[in-house]
Amino acid sequence: MINDEKMATDIVDQMSMEEIMEQLLHQAPQNQRLGIPEYNWWGEALHGVARAGTASVFPQAIALAATFDVHLIEEIADVIATEARAKFNASVADDDRDIYKGLTLWAPNLNIFRDPRWGRGHETYGEDPYLTARMGVAFIRGLQGVENYENGEEPKRLKTAACAKHFAVHSGPEAQRHSFNAVVNEKDLEETYLPAFHEAVTEGKVAGVMGAYNRINGVPACANRDFNWKLLREKWGFSGYYVSDCWAVKDIYENHKVVDTPAKAAAMAINSGCDLNCGKTYAYLKEALEEGLVKEENIKQALKRLLIIRMKLGILSDMQSDYDKISFLENDTPEHQKLVCRAAEKSIVLLKNNGILPLKKVKYSKIGIIGPTADSRNVLEGNYFGRSSVYITNLDGIRQYLSTSDTRIIYSEGCHLYKKSFSCMSKESDRLSEAKAVVNASDVILLFLGLDATIEGEEGDAGNMYGAGDKDSLMLPDCQQLLQKTVIELAKAKGKEVIAVINAGSAVDISYLKEHCSAILYCWYSGAYGGAALANVLFGDVNPSARLPITLYKEGQLPDFLDYSMKNRTYRYLREEPLYTFGFGLSYTSFLYHFIKAEPKPMTEKGICVKIKVENSGSFDGEEAVLVYIDKCPKEKDKYLENANYIPYLSAENQPIRSLCAFNKIYLRAGEVQEITLHIRETELMTVLENGERILLKGRYTLEVAHLKESFVYEVS
Q1: % the chain with pLDDT above 70
Q2: Residue 644 has pLDDT above 60, yes or no
Q3: Cα torsion angle, 89, 93, 97, 99, sign
Q4: How confident is residue 650, by pLDDT bands cut at 50, 70 and 90?
Q5: Confidence of residue 386 (pLDDT cuts 50, 70, 90)
């Protein structure tokens, strides 16, 4: 086995400082003298290889989180890595080393979706630290090559290099991200914002970490030595490469204004442990070196870490691997397309059903389809997407499903996604009368509403109608609110039922739909085969099994968007009743939980084993996400309130109401019973004090299983 570190040191020792510094930019030039090829580090793979031509487009990350299926996520990431390799091998063979065509993939996004107004929240795995960590680790393992984790050590060779972003405490506002200071206390840091990154490093062995744009308590994230060096490298043992978000180093002097020159910004970043500059500010490192702001050894060490990653990928190493043999024919294959569809099916959340679903083809001769998201490709893609060779919109999927039946589809867009009319020549609501005609002519109505990346997205990326990517409110655009009210009131007057289908990447206030519709499906940004998946669920070929990875709030329930405190945010701290809480999701069948027990006592190094018996007591085969929560707060009359160990956190207001601590996805045929075991790590029982310290307190811990009325009290003595 080649010693990558020694080889990297040998290469760096042969280079001049000018040659070294030019390799620290994301667009690294060729060094012909030393045989180093040109390489562009910037690659995207959030839910498929992005911005590099044809590739599989999986459902957006938030949709994948809704599956609560780590095995599926790992399988998807492995396919993404295969396609990245297939495209890379073909590009390099033609000496094409352009942006987005490399093997360093800047995904996953492990930020916590703390506020649904944040435009980039759909890039994340939702609001829960535990779910985010488990999904993130699975995605990293898939990207980097599952087979490389067999010995439990850090991978010696990589299929592709994953990159956990954006470190840390980043979740809006997009409009101010280049100058914003995220003020966060030690408790929220340790309990909410950092756990997924910690797991990505210590368990996922992630190859890269990307710094955020914002400041953290006054210090720019990409130049924050306390985070990037002391925490990430010294405490967590991170040995990979650290890259700035794009042009974030420029922000240090231009927008954050913590220093006044680009040379000082470059020095501040590299001295904190930022190896690679996505941008051009590291071109000023020569000036910083001349001014004594940075040491040569820090610059050399940064390049060594970058070269080691390239060697692990086989870009600089003579060692051949099976990855180099992946053919271009392994990109966008029929098998991959089937997985895209399966992922979409498993991500659809059934929020309401009065029994109308699944639909019976023979019951309806005319199905009305109304709404701006019914025939939209944008709601399939989300953001950071590739170009699928096939797209099946919601309308396409239903039409194809019913192609062999006598059922007629009657369609109207009803309204624009957000504009008052489609034409500047027409009056407002110029498709509303057509929508009414569809209602009158149909037996049942499917109402398609929602958002896309032109309403919620990244600052400067989507040409967002609201300016910078974030949402102003949780309400649907005015034109859609008028459409839903008009359609539902007319349908009700005619005695016809309405099924609502929502495509969105975040929480939308659907109070009106919840009250008046017969059924509601939340489909997210559902991937290239989203319409086919929807049809399979609507007509009962697939039993919905997804759960909400976020809380669906009512308008007005949220604290100030700029407040990074977790108080009254997410299911863990929200004191009011939301529309739908994290973890909610219905099925076409029913599941019974027969018993729960936890062992061992006392706790071992492996934590607690929770055993649950689950029965599919309904008539449909289906999957069930088994969720276990822990309540660490002592109750008001609990004798353990007197325990001195509880004194530091007697205020229940400062502790989570409950927290997800284990989950598993199982498949049960109708009538089948399964006994499963879930492992709860000691870490999940620990309490985070106000100073950020994690401690295991003595006392009672209540374990709750979703859908099980009984709870189990586990005692730590």
Answers
A1: 94
A2: no
A3: negative
A4: very low
A5: very high
CA dist 180 and 221 (Å) reads: 11
- From the list 714, 710, 511, 708, the residue with the least C-alpha distance to 624 is 708
524-547 residue pLDDT tens: 999 999 999 999 999 999 999 999
- Beta bridge partner(s), residue 666: 624
Please state the three-class secondary structure of 467-507 as a single string: CCCCCCCCCCCHHHHHHHHHHHHHHHHCCCCEEEEEECCCC
* Alpha-carbon separation of residue 47 from 52, 107, 340, 445, 459 (angstroms): 13, 9, 10, 31, 19
Q: In this structure, is the dihedral angle defined by the CA atoms of residues 72, 73, 75 and 79, taken in order, positive or negative?
A: positive
DSSP string, 356-382: -PSP-GGG-SEEEEESTTTT-SHHHH-
DSSP for 181-201? EE---HHHIIIIISHHHHHHH
Q: How far is CA 215 from the centre of its chain?
A: 22
pLDDT, position 467: 43
Active site annotation includes 245: yes
Sign of the Cα torsion 118, 121, 127, 129 reads negative
CB contact at 8 A, 207 and 241:
yes
Per residue in 229-249, pLDDT (tens digit) is 999 999 999 999 999 999 999
424 CA to centre of own chain:
38
If one counts every other C-beta atom within 10 angstroms of the C-beta of residue 176, the result is 16
Domains of the chain: 4-13+20-327 (3.20.20.300), 334-540 (3.40.50.1700), 591-716 (2.60.40.10)
Q: Across the chain, what does the average pLDDT equal?
A: 93
Q: pLDDT tens digits, residue range 397-422?
A: 999 999 999 999 999 999 999 999 99
Residue 669 falls in which region: left (phi positive, over 0), alpha (psi -120 to 50) or beta: beta
Instruction: Outline where 545-678 has alpha helix (H).
Output: 570-573
Mean pLDDT of 297-312: 97
Query: Under a CB-based contact definition with an 8 Å cutoff, are residues 415 and 429 in contact?
Result: yes
Which one from 245, 275, 452, 470 is the annotated catalytic residue? 245
Q: Which of 377, 386, 461, 528 is nearest to 84 (CA)?
A: 386
Instruction: Please report, for residues 178, 251, 418, 457, 702, the alpha-carbon distance to residue 175 in angstroms, rounded to integers and kept in the order given.
Output: 8, 14, 20, 11, 42
Sheet containing strand 366-370, edge to edge, reads 349-353, 519-522, 498-503, 444-450, 366-370, 408-412
| Residue 521 one-letter amino acid | L
Report d(CA 581, CA 418) in Å as an integer: 27
Q: What is the CA radius of gyration of the chain?
A: 26
CA dihedral 374, 375, 379, 385 (to 10 degrees): 160
pLDDT of 707: 84
pLDDT at 481 over 70: yes
Say how far apart CA 480 and CA 417 lie, in whole Å: 7
Distance CA 170, CA 466 (A): 20
Report the 10 Å Cβ neighbour count for 329: 9
CA-based nearest residue to 658, from 631, 678, 686: 631
Cβ contacts of residue 133 below 8 Å, gap of 6+?
110, 195, 196, 198, 199, 200
- Edge-to-edge strand order for the sheet containing 208-211? 163-167, 208-211, 241-243
Q: Assess whether pLDDT exceeds 60 at residue 641.
A: no
Look at residues 252, 108, 114, 251 and name the one whose alpha carbon lies nearest to residue 171: 114
Q: Which two tokens stand for residue 424?
A: 């500047």
**What is the helix (H) or strand (E) element at residue 142, kind and residue range?**
helix 129-144
Q: What is the pLDDT of residue 652?
A: 56
In angstroms, the CA 110 to CA 195 distance is 9
Query: What mean pLDDT comes out for the span 313-336?
Result: 91
